[in-house]
Amino acid sequence: MPLSFTAKRRGKPPRHFADLAPEEVREVVEALGEKPYRAKQLATHYYAHLTRDPEGMTDLPAATRDVLAENLFPQLLTAARTMEADGGTTVKTLWHLFDAAKVESVLMRYPRRTTLCVSSQAGCGMACPFCATGQLGLTRNLSTAEIVEQVRSASKSLADGDIPGGPTRLNNLVFMGMGEPLANYKAVIGTVRRLVAPAPDGFGMSARNVTVSTVGLVPAMRKLTAEGIPVTLALSLHAPDDELRSELVPVNTKWSVDEALDAAREYFEATGRRVSIEYALIKDMNDHAWRADLLGEKLNARGKGWVHVNPIPLNPTPGSIWTASDRDVEDEFVARLRAHGTPTTVRDTRGSDIDGACGQLAAEEDE
């Protein structure tokens, strides 16, 4: 299956406040004839009050807020469809972007935490055959602001008490929605910087509560290592042997299992952050006990205490030949990994009854 690393030509998203560094916002504000301190007021409204609505910016004169909003807060995302599960505590949203591209995000509220899964690309160019998004192909990269707007919208819903359980904050952010995050490196790292920046220049989240996933783009993994921002790195491995992984994750033909694991180990050494290995368990494909043993051996060959494995029961897509492993096979796979001393936790798969696999709603709209 061919890989597509470049997006189809589309228009560039309009400039948005979240695309700009604080000094760039000040420059825009001054160019519009306003005092530079307005930039800090805007940042407080956006990142602390979670609003882009000029009507809520009552500390700014009416004329001023309208001009600033028109120039800095264009509508980037429009909710086209939402689906709920788990008593309304799991909410999946299909967003239409300014150019009719489609992305999805999933907000999940648990008893003691909240997690948002965001998309970094419309579609995906990695062509993994078991992935709904991978079968869509790549439409384009998202801008920083298009990703940040997914975060702000979810944070606002939580703060306003729209999700059952009363008002709360967003605790965790995972780049595990549509797209390969490290193939859109600039926008993703720009989003990470806004997530972890203290108020009023960002959401003030802990880097430890941000997870960036990758199918194993080794040069970009090393670039992320050099950033020195201790987010959690999640490597979507799905097979410990090159022969099968090259079928399941075509990018493996460029960077092998061992190269990806070496880069992941380097990330741990540089940041001290334990790496997550994501492993979608696919019936009769990659769920053999000997593959669990091989994975445990490969991880142990690179040391102890640096990694955690998350086997994930596959969320099947309609009409797909790919399906989740039987429970007894899953249990044996987990037992084999733990026998190697590998910390292993089966991932909770929420939203299976609302087309939980990213890309399914977008694919349905295109049918």
List the helices and strands and how they pair.
Elements: H1 22-31, H2 38-48, H3 62-72, E1 77-85, E2 90-97, E3 102-109, E4 114-117, E5 121-123, E6 138-141, H4 144-159, E7 172-175, H5 185-196, E8 210-214, H6 218-227, E9 232-236, H7 242-248, H8 257-271, E10 275-281, H9 289-300, E11 307-313, H10 327-339, H11 360-366
Parallel strand pairs: 4-7, 7-8, 8-9, 9-10, 10-11
Antiparallel strand pairs: 1-2, 2-3, 3-4, 5-6
Q: Keyphrases for this structure?
A:
single chain; 367 residues; alpha/beta; TIM Barrel; 9-stranded mixed β-sheet; two-stranded antiparallel ribbon; 34% helix; 17% strand
Strand content: 15-25%
Record field, number of beta strands = 11
Low-pLDDT sequence parts = 1-9
Taking the alpha carbons of the first and last residues, their distance comes to 22 Å
SSE ordering: HHHEEEEEEHEHEHEHHEHEHH
Which descriptor suits the 3D outline? elongated
Query: Widest sheet: strand order?
Result: 1-2-3-4-7-8-9-10-11
> Which secondary-structure class do the elements indicate?
alpha/beta
For the largest beta-sheet, the strand count, sense and barrel status come to: 9 strands, mixed
Which fold name fills CATH's third level, the topology of the largest domain?
TIM Barrel
Q: How many separate domains make up the residues? A: 2
Number of H- or I-type helical stretches: 11
CATH class of the largest domain: Alpha Beta
Rg over C-alpha atoms, rounded to the nearest angstrom? 21 Å
Helix content: 25-40%
CATH H-level homologous superfamily name of the largest domain: Aldolase class I
Reported CATH architecture of the largest domain: Alpha-Beta Barrel
Task: Look at the structure and give the mean pLDDT.
Answer: 93
Keywords: 4Fe-4S, Cytoplasm, Disulfide bond, Iron, Iron-sulfur, Metal-binding, Methyltransferase, rRNA processing, S-adenosyl-L-methionine, Transferase, tRNA processing
Protein name: Probable dual-specificity RNA methyltransferase RlmN
Subcellular location: Cytoplasm
Binding site for S-adenosyl-L-methionine: 179-180, 213, 236-238, 315
